[in-house]
Design goal:
Layout (H helix, E strand, L loop, with lengths): L4 H22 E4 L2 E4 L7 H11 L3 H14 L4 H13 L3 H12 L6 H18 L2 H14 L4 H13 L3 H14 L5 H21 L3 H14 L4 H13 L3 H14 L8 H10 L3 H14 L4 H13 L3 H14 L4 H4 L1
Antiparallel strand pairs: 1-2
């Protein structure tokens, strides 16, 4: 028996350590009293509050969670939720006060600090305090560089402020964190941002930079329709109408359902280059490939009317009306 005494002593010490550790995890000393850390979360008020939250009964959720929070003023999670609910209810000032108060607490872990800051950033964003929101999200990313919620909200802020280059960089960081399933979505967003950067260059008449950005958008997302339209506009501005026609016709080929967006440009170019039949052939091909394409019929009808071919134009107009009798543009 004495041979097992050291082993038994070690086991007893281990169990005692585990017990003390669990107790330390659950309880803390405050004002000379031991406080149960789980008290707020295990209260019926907390459970009821979450149930009301799921049912979208915000007022009742706030009422019950406030009662749960009163059981332990240091219950970080409960107070964070309360602050978020105040924000959703439109009480932004109250939400900011709650979350700022949480940030004043000592002993917050790096991750806890980051998430409270994220909540505060969302408060600022909801309240229209753009600079403060930007600072909060940036600080979150300093603490937690892979925080996708902070990246998403920072990108939205940058887009709203037309900070397209910054938004592009932020989206690239998000894309680097994402799995393969979200790649198409990220590519589409990056293409949108490339197009916006290109538009800024176009407004500065920096055609080389604009063309580079629009081409990059198309490389990222072959169905980035605005990029095709804008790249064609750049080529026209440069006096290269042949390339412009090829770009817009490529759009028609890749996204025939969006071809109508290029009709005005293609028709004007065909007329300007004394080749109106080119537009006629394009519209007829679209109609053959999709018998329900009322927009191609309408565009061709207007084109033929301008070419003094009213009979053919009227037939096309009636055919378009059959496909979409409620389209206001057909009746005009």
């Amino acid at each position: 028996m004495s041979a097992y005494a050291p082993l038994l002593a070690a086991l007893v010490a281990l169990l005692a350590g585990l017990t003390i550790g669990k107790a330390w995890e659950r309880y803390k000393l405050r004002d000379g009293k031991w406080i149960d850390r789980r008290r707020a979360r295990e209260s019926p008020h907390y459970i009821l509050g979450l149930n009301f939250l799921v049912a979208n009964q915000i007022d009742l959720a706030i009422e019950e969670l406030s009662r749960a929070a009163s059981l332990d003023a240091d219950a970080l999670e409960v107070h964070m939720i309360l602050g978020n609910l105040y924000r959703e209810k439109g009480q932004v000032g109250k939400a900011i006060t709650v979350h700022q108060g949480l940030l004043q607490r000592s002993g917050l872990s790096r991750l806890e600090h980051a998430y409270v800051l994220l909540c505060l950033g969302l408060d600022y964003k909801r309240g229209g305090f753009v600079e403060r929101a930007h600072e909060a999200f940036t600080e979150v990313l300093r603490l937690d560089a892979k925080n996708e919620y902070a990246l998403v909200n920072l990108q939205k802020l940058q887009e709203e402020q037309h900070q397209w280059l910054e938004a592009y960089d932020t989206r690239q960081r998000l894309a680097a964190l994402a799995d393969g399933n979200t790649r198409p979505r990220n590519q589409a967003v990056l293409a949108f941002l490339e197009n916006e950067i290109g538009l800024e260059a176009l407004r500065r008449t920096d055609y080389a930079e604009a063309a580079r950005r629009f081409a990059a958008a198309i490389d990222l997302d072959p169905r980035a329709v605005p990029a095709y339209l804008n790249l064609g506009d750049v080529r026209v501005a440069e006096g290269n109408e042949r390339d412009a026609a090829a770009i817009w016709e490529k759009l028609v080929e890749i996204a025939p359902d969006r071809a109508y967006l290029a009709f005005d440009r293609l028709e004007a170019l065909a007329v300007r280059t004394a080749n109106p039949e080119r537009f006629t052939r394009l519209c007829r091909r679209l109609i053959e490939e999709n018998s329900q394409d009322w927009r191609a019929r309408l565009a061709l009808s207007r084109h033929l009317t301008a070419r003094a071919r009213p009979s053919e134009a009227l037939d096309l107009l009636f055919a378009a009306l059959v496909q979409n009798p409620h389209a206001l543009s057909i009746h005009q």
